[in-house]
Amino acid sequence: MTSTVPFVRVCALSELEDDTPHRVEVDGVPVSVVRTEGEVFAINDICSHANVSLAEGEVEDCQIECWLHGSSFDLRTGKPSGLPATRPVPVYPVKIVGDDVLVSVTQES
Ligand code: FES
Questions:
Q1: pLDDT tens for residues 35-64?
Q2: Which residues form the Rieske domain (predicted)?
């Protein structure tokens, strides 16, 4: 698909608790929606190291930590801050409209 991917409503802003990842699926893609430090971020829910849900990890300093081996991923860029993960996790644009949280998932390639 080459057309621009629309934003999809994933949850209500009031459903999100600070620093508590909320797992959703957008067009079949698992996404962790995280409200922290006054902003909302969307990051692919699967760790780049192994097939593990990041939504089960902890959020601190605008990073989400993979619970299995401890790599943390920057919620703004998806980049890992340390081993064992070396590849970034995709992050997605978020829009807030009223109390709705919308995410646009664009497929890589
Ligand atoms: S599975 Fe996430 S760091 Fe290993």
A1: 999 999 999 999 999 999 999 999 999 999
A2: 8-103
